[in-house]
Amino acid sequence: MAEAQEKAGKDGTAGKDGKAGTAGKSGTALELLVHGVGGTTPAEMLDDPRTVRITGDHVAAVFRRAEDADAESRPEDYRGRPVPEAYVWCNLTSGNGTRALWLLLLPFMVVNIAHWMRPAARGRVRTVRLYGLLLRLTGLTLTVLLVAAACEVALDLVAWQCAGTRACAERHSWLGFLSPVMSDGGWWSTPGRRLALAAAVPAALTGLLWYLSLRTWRAYESQQPMDRESDPEEDPRRAALGRPGFWYGRRLVARLRAAHTAAGLLTVSTGIVVPAARHDRLPGGPALLDTLGRVLLGALVAGAVAVVAVVCRRGRSENRLDRELDEHLVRRLPLASLLLFVLALVYGGWARPGWTSYGRLSGDAAFGTLALVQGLLVVALAVVAHLLHRSRPDARAAVRGLGGPAVAMLACALGGVMSGGVSQRVSDWMDGTGTYLAGPPVLLTWQASVIPPLLVVVLLMCAALARHTVRRARVERDAVEHDHPGEAGDAGRTRRIALARAMAGLTDRAPLLVALTSGATLLLGAAALVGALTTDQVPGEAARGTYAVVQGAAQTAQELGSWLIGLGFILFVTWGRRAYKDASARRTIGILWDVGTFWPRAAHPFAPPCYAERAVPDLTWRMATWTRATGGRLVISGHSQGSVLAAAASWQLEPSARRRVALLTYGSPLERLYGRWFPAHFGPDALASLHEEVDCWRNLYRRTDPIGGPMRLPGDAGPAVDRAPLKDPLTYGRTELHPLPAPILGHSDYQADPAFAEERARLLARLRPEVPAPRHTDGAATSVPAADDTTGNC
């Protein structure tokens, strides 16, 4: 392998240092294959069991067949065919067992996705910045919410309530040393020291989040893209993904990591200081401790203001490759918060004779404030998104430009479910009879109680979609018969094909489902907040004395919601445990991350790492060094998510190199998913500019594919890029060529279709050492050009 790398470097490809070799320009053609979600092996991609790694490492690398390892030294052997290479990046998302820990980061990933869903806008710089700011603040509230949930469990339920209640402490003997009765007034039995000891749990969680963010950034996102100057005359339609600094967000991620780490530590410190300061303010309390408490509370408020100010600073710098680092913030802010945390431990652990714990800590006010702030941020975000969408309407944009606010709302709801689930389950475990402890904050019980009505809404929507799918399948039967004229009819097979087409169309109905679910979540969440604040009782108790049907519904919703949120928490933990031990389950989680972690961390630094910040520079370096060293042209072939990486890497090339690249996409979500949900980056203008800038682009899709679809470019560009939908199955019945029934392929095995070989041959025929062939956009011919045809047809 090392010899192959060294030889490739000498012969003109990228060597170990990523630089081009010194060989003369041979004009050899290259076919670079990029797999999709889930990944595959180099042997499967190259259709050869003997492969060697040309460049890269165990995480992501470029492979060739063993016989092609030294292709640059034998250009005469590749006059009529290209050198095939496979870029394998699946280990970026589905590696070792630590990936299971990423499940903890799911709400952070969702809110980070919402950051990139802003509508397309031109010239609305301040409004765009406000959109990003609101999402960074929403991400900050999610960090505080997660740490506050850990504080609720460790400080309130365990250290304050259970350890301070004799019956609960006797039931859990491991808490005996914290109980004033069981330890006979031991050193750890005072409330402040119990809180200080329990604070190790949420503090450790904060440290774990900081460590995961730092470690994954070094492993995935620290790869620098190619350094080039931004074009001052850049076409405004061109996607922002082509900017030099788009795939290198080191400065912002480091700054946000410091702010969120500080926010977590300040949240834990507040959980210690507030109860102690409240006791010290009682009449007859020690004046010195009262003064220290007020000083510490003021310092915590100042720290919170500093954190918010850091988050509000300008976001990403994309027009240049920003290598700077705000060291004074990255280092001093977390250290100052850590110092306040230590002072809080000392202050909370100070001896206070006569101090006893009763009731709950101030969790109701904390969680209520967080819920209110999150709701207001989502509403403000919706207003900003609507203004951006109105300035440049896009009929294909998901939820009419409100996809970002809708997804942000779901991220907040997911964070609430996770925090409420762990609190409910720990409370039930500590107090199985429900008679010893005051339990978790009332708001968390109200939030759990709205889950059943929310599920009813979702089930009704799913029923409506199912009805729509059945009706659509009936309509598709005629289309299936029309696509296969002259063949003997088979009602069962026709139904299966029609149902596959109708099911694939559900992808286009997803925006409606997300919009209605998000709207219902916002309304029910607001109702839960109002109910908790106005009654200060759980729903079952608050409904006493009302109509029997109201009381019964409230009690049922409360009990069913508690059970559902507990079940969800158990399934979450079980899935994470299984993923840690089972490689296949971990691969399934990796597929989810393939879609969710394409985007850089811009709204939340604790989100799972962005694999594209490694994959896109890899592909860009490979394409740029090849075209520069050999003078040849290149076909980059991407399936599914691989087509998104291929497009992003093509945008990153210099214009001269981009004109020597042909693009083949199949099963591509570029327009169907990314164009609709991320219109500012994959909207019609961006895709049209990509079509104009590369040498040629062809796209294949099927009506049975739930992910891939046409690019829908306007005018002549549409048929120039999109081939007519491929037949699926390849044959309706049994034929001489296919004596057994052909399967319905859907999103897989595009290479099995003869059309794939035709389009691939057409693009490869355009690969010549001379200047790129002129494109023709008057149609999409399906015949393969002759070997000596240099005019091409794209």
Secondary structure layout:
Blueprint: H1 2-11, E1 30-34, H2 42-46, E2 51-56, E3 61-65, E4 83-88, H3 106-115, H4 125-162, H5 166-171, H6 191-198, H7 200-221, H8 250-280, H9 287-312, H10 327-348, H11 363-391, H12 403-430, H13 442-449, H14 451-483, H15 491-504, H16 510-535, H17 539-542, H18 548-581, H19 583-596, H20 612-630, E5 634-639, H21 641-652, H22 655-658, E6 661-666, H23 670-677, H24 679-682, H25 684-693, E7 696-700, H26 717-721, H27 754-765
Parallel strand pairs: 1-4, 1-5, 5-6, 6-7
Antiparallel strand pairs: 2-3, 3-4
Helix pairs in contact: 3-4, 3-12, 4-6, 4-7, 4-8, 4-11, 4-12, 6-10, 7-8, 8-9, 8-10, 9-10, 11-12, 11-16, 12-13, 12-16, 12-18, 13-16, 13-18, 14-15, 14-16, 18-19, 20-21
What does this structure look like?
The chain is mainly alpha-helical. The chain is built from 27 helices and seven strands. The protein has helices at 2-11, 42-46, 106-115, 125-162, 166-171, 191-198, 200-221, 250-280, 287-312, 327-348, 363-391, 403-430, 442-449, 451-483, 491-504, 510-535, 539-542, 548-581, 583-596, 612-630, 641-652, 655-658, 670-677, 679-682, 684-693, 717-721, 754-765, and strands at residues 30-34, 51-56, 61-65, 83-88, 634-639, 661-666, 696-700. A seven-stranded mixed sheet has the order 2-3-4-1-5-6-7, with helices on both faces. Strand 2 and strand 3 (61-65) form a beta hairpin. The longest helix has 38 residues, at 125-162. It is globular, with a radius of gyration of 30 Å. The two termini are 38 Å apart. Residues 1-24 and 776-792 have low confidence and may be disordered. Residues 1-19 have a biased composition (Basic and acidic residues). Keywords: Membrane, Transmembrane, Transmembrane helix. InterPro entries: AB_hydrolase_fold. It comes from Streptomyces ardesiacus. Residues 1-25, 770-794 are annotated as: Disordered.
